[in-house]
TrEMBL record, chains A, B:
It is an enzyme of class 1 (oxidoreductase). GO terms for molecular function: NADH dehydrogenase (quinone) (non-electrogenic) activity. This is NADH:ubiquinone reductase (non-electrogenic). Residues 347-406 form the External alternative NADH-ubiquinone oxidoreductase-like C-terminal domain. Its EC number is 1.6.5.9. It catalyses: a quinone + NADH + H(+) = a quinol + NAD(+). It comes from Sinorhizobium sojae CCBAU 05684. It holds the Pfam family NDH2_C.
Length: 427, 427
C-alpha cells in the first residue's frame, strides 16, 4: 500500500476518470474517491428526468471501470477537507489519506443566487436522484390533475416551468412538451394533457446564449412548434410551492425545474485559495493551486481562462481535456521531463437537442440544425457512453422511442414519506 | 361518465390487470385505482434488488397499458376504505367513488410476526423502492467494508443474512453469493469479497417447502456450491442494526433481508368481513365477500381453498386465474347468464432459480432441475413480461450477464438523507 508515488483523485466525473485512464502504466498508485458509487453521464441526465432513459443506462459503478487496474483503489466516501501542508485529505468517517499528488475534480452543484429555499420547490438536475425527483414530480403533476376537481388548481398542476434556457433547460422543456402534447393525451380521461403549459424562462435576452443567434432563433422556433412558451429577458424573482414570479408577474405552476446557475464545490476553501464568484478555484495555467504545485484542480471546480480571456466552459469535453493535461504533467514530472506548457482548451463544438427530431450543433465555422444535427448528436452521445452494454441499451431505448413514440421509464419511484412531503409542500 | 355499469378495481397487480384485460368489450366502464403509477412484475423484483435488472425493465405505467381502452379510467390514489352499503370507496384526498361492482385486488405486504420494529433493519421485497433499498444496502455494505479498519466490524459488514427460504429468499441468497464470490473480487483492493458470508435462515425443516424434497435438496446443494450457508430449523428471534439472533445464537450481520412472511392488505376490515390469521378476507367460492355479491376480493388479499382443502397459493398465476374468473362472472351477470360455477385453481407448476445457471421446476409429475430448467424459467419469464420493449431489454440484460458475468444495474441511489439514516441505524 505504501510504495510509489500516490495520486489521490477526488471526484469520478469526466475529468477524474480521464485522468485515471491516462495514468495507465505510469509509476503511480492511485486512490479515486467519490461520494457516489457511480460515474454519471450528465449530458443525458435530462433524458432520465423526462422518462426516456433508465438510470442504469447512463451510470456505471466506478470501481468496475478499474477492475483490471490493481494500482487503482476506489473508495466511496465524502471528502470533507484537505490539508495542503500535511498533504492529506480527510473523509467524513474521520480517516485521513496522505497524497503525493492531489487532483480535485469535485464538480459543481446548483446555485440559487442566495435563495437556497427555492431548492425544495425548484430542484436542479445534477444527480440520478435529482433526475428521478424531477421525473416523479412531472408524472405526479399529471396524475394529480386527473384527480383534481378545482379548475384553477388543475391548471396550476398542468403548468410546468423550467428556469434557465441553456441546453439543459431547452432539452427538458422540449421533452416535457412532447410528453404533454403527443404521448400522454390518449392515456388520460378527465384532463386534456394537450392543454398543459410548458414555460421556459430566461433572464437573458435570448435562449442558448452559447450558440449563434441564428441557431438560437431556430431553437426558439422549434420549441414553439412543440408548444413551449419561451419568456426571455425576464428574471425569476420568487419560487414557491404555488408557482413562480417572473419579473412582477405570478404564474401558478406546481412543477418547477431549476436549470439556471451552478455553484462550484468547496475545493477552493479546502485549500484556502482564491475563488471566483461561482466558487471556482482560481488556478494557474498549469491547473495547479497557487503555492501548491502538487495540487491540481480541474473541471467545474476550477476557473481557467482561454487564450482569448474567455473562461473555459463547464462542459464534459473541457473537464476531459484538463484530466488528460494533468495526466501528462504528472507523467512528465515523474520522468523528469519538462511539463507540457500551459493548458489550452480546444472547443470541439456545442450541441443541444430540441425534442426528439431536431438539434443544433455549433462547430464554430460549421453550424448544423434539424434532423441531420439530431442524428449526429445521437451517434456522438452513444459513442461517448462507456461500454457495449450501455451503448446498446441507449441505442435500443432511442430506437424504440423513435419508432413507437413512447418512453421507456415512466416510473414514479421514491419513498412514500417523500411523496407525502412533496404533497405537503404543494398543499 | 355516469352511464353504464361501473366496475371499480382497486389494485393494478396481476389479478387486477387480468380482470381489466378480460373485461374488454363488455358493457361496463371501469375505474382502475392503484397507489403506484406502475404495474410491477414481482417475480423478477429480486433481480432488481441484486443489480441484474433495472427498475424500468420490470415495471410499466398502468395507464399506458389501457391507452386504447377509452372506457378504462386509471387513477393514482390510495384507497382508504369502502362502504359496501352505500357502494362507494373513498380515496385519501377525501373523494368518494361510487361502484356497481367492486373488485379488491390490493395484495399483501411483509409480516414481521408482531415485530414491526424489525422492518427498519430487515427490509422486505414488495415494491421497486424495497428493491432499490436492498440493492443500496448490499452495495453499501461492500463499500463500507473496503473503508473499515476494525476487523470485527468488517466481518459484520461482509455478512448478509436472508430470512426465509421460499423462492425469493433462495433467489436473493444465490445472487448475492455470486456477486461476492465471482463478480466483485477483482474490484476491491483492501477486502477479499470472497470471504463474505451469505446466510439463508429458515425456521422450517427445509428450504423451498413448496417443492418436492428431492428438488429442495438439489437447491440446497447448489446454494452451498455458490457459497451460501443454509441454516434450517432455526427461527429468527431478534433483528437489530448489529445483526440477527437465530435461535439463541447471535450472528453479527449488517445487511438483513426479510423474505419470511406476508400480511394481506386491509380489504377485509374495510368490508367488515372475517379474515384469516394473515389478514386475508375469507371469501366464498365465487370470490365474493359474504353478504355482498357485488364485491369481489382476489389475489393475495383473499383466502380461498382448493378442492383438496389446501389454500390457493399467493402467486401470480393464482391471482391471474381469479381475475379471469371474476371477469367471466361479471360478464355472465350483465348478460343474464348463470355464473360460471365455483372458482377452481389450476396449479401450473412452481419455479425457482439458484444463481445464474441452475433452476428447479416442479410441474407435479414432471420435475426439472439444472441448466435446462434455468432456460425454461428464463424463456417463461420473458414471455410473461408486458410488451416488446421489456422483453427485449430483459433478454438483453440476461444475455449480457450470462456472457460477461457482470450485472447491469449496480447503482447506489436514494436521497442523501436516507443514506445518512441508514448509517445512523447501523452505527
Amino acid at each position: 500500500m505504501s510504495e510509489g508515488h500516490h495520486v489521490v483523485v477526488v471526484g469520478g466525473g469526466f475529468g477524474g476518470l480521464q485522468l485515471v485512464n491516462d495514468l495507465k502504466g505510469a509509476a503511480v498508485r492511485i486512490t479515486l474517491i467519490d461520494r457516489r458509487n457511480h460515474h454519471l453521464f450528465q449530458p443525458l441526465l435530462y433524458q432520465v428526468a423526462t422518462t426516456v432513459l433508465a438510470t442504469s443506462e447512463i451510470a456505471w459503478p466506478i470501481r468496475h471501470l478499474y477492475r483490471d487496474r490493481p494500482e487503482v483503489t476506489t473508495l466511496l466516501g465524502e471528502v470533507t477537507g484537505a490539508d495542503p501542508i500535511a498533504r492529506t485529505i480527510s473523509l467524513d468517517g474521520g480517516q485521513t489519506i496522505a497524497y503525493d499528488t492531489l487532483v480535485l475534480a469535485t464538480g459543481a452543484t446548483h446555485a440559487y443566487f442566495g435563495h437556497d429555499e427555492w431548492a425544495a420547490v425548484a430542484p436542479g438536475l445534477k444527480t440520478l436522484e435529482d433526475a428521478t425527483t424531477i421525473r416523479r414530480r412531472v408524472l405526479l403533476a399529471f396524475e394529480r390533475a386527473e384527480l383534481e376537481q378545482d379548475p384553477e388548481r388543475r391548471d396550476a398542476l398542468l403548468t410546468f416551468t423550467i428556469i434557465g434556457a441553456g441546453p439543459t433547460g431547452v432539452e427538458l422543456a422540449g421533452i416535457i412538451a412532447e410528453m404533454a402534447h403527443r404521448i400522454l393525451p390518449a392515456e388520460f380521461r378527465r384532463i386534456d394533457t394537450r392543454r398543459a403549459r410548458v414555460v421556459l424562462v430566461e433572464a437573458g435576452p435570448r435562449i442558448l446564449p452559447a450558440f449563434s443567434e441564428e441557431l438560437s432563433g431556430y431553437a426558439g422556433r422549434e420549441l414553439k412548434k412543440l408548444g413551449v412558451e419561451v419568456w426571455t429577458g425576464t428574471p425569476v424573482t420568487d419560487c414557491s410551492a404555488a408557482g413562480v414570479v417572473i419579473g412582477d408577474r405570478f404564474l401558478p405552476s406546481c412543477t418547477l425545474v431549476w436549470a439556471a446557475g451552478v455553484q462550484a464545490s468547496p475545493a477552493a476553501s479546502w485549500l484556502g485559495i482564491p475563488a471566483d464568484r461561482a466558487g471556482r478555484a482560481l488556478v494557474g495555467d498549469d491547473l495547479t493551486a497557487p503555492g501548491h504545485p502538487e495540487v491540481f484542480v480541474i473541471g467545474d471546480t476550477a476557473s481557467v481562462s482561454q487564450a482569448d480571456g474567455k473562461p473555459v466552459p463547464g462542459i464534459a469535453p473541457a473537464a476531459k481535456q484538463q484530466g488528460a493535461f494533468v495526466a501528462r504533467t504528472i507523467r512528465a514530472r515523474l520522468e523528469g521531463r519538462p511539463a507540457p506548457g500551459p493548458f489550452r482548451y480546444r472547443h470541439q463544438g456545442s450541441l443541444a437537442t430540441i425534442g426528439r427530431r431536431a438539434a443544433i450543433i455549433d462547430f464554430g465555422r460549421i453550424k448544423l440544425k434539424g434532423a441531420l444535427a439530431w442524428w449526429i448528436w445521437g451517434v456522438a452521445h452513444i459513442y461517448f457512453l462507456i461500454g457495449t452494454r450501455s451503448r446498446f441499451a441507449v441505442a435500443w431505448s432511442w430506437l424504440w422511442t423513435f419508432l413507437s413514440g413512447q418512453h421507456s421509464a415512466r416510473l414514479i419511484t421514491q419513498k412514500e414519506t417523500e411523496d407525502v412531503e412533496a404533497v405537503e409542500l404543494r398543499d
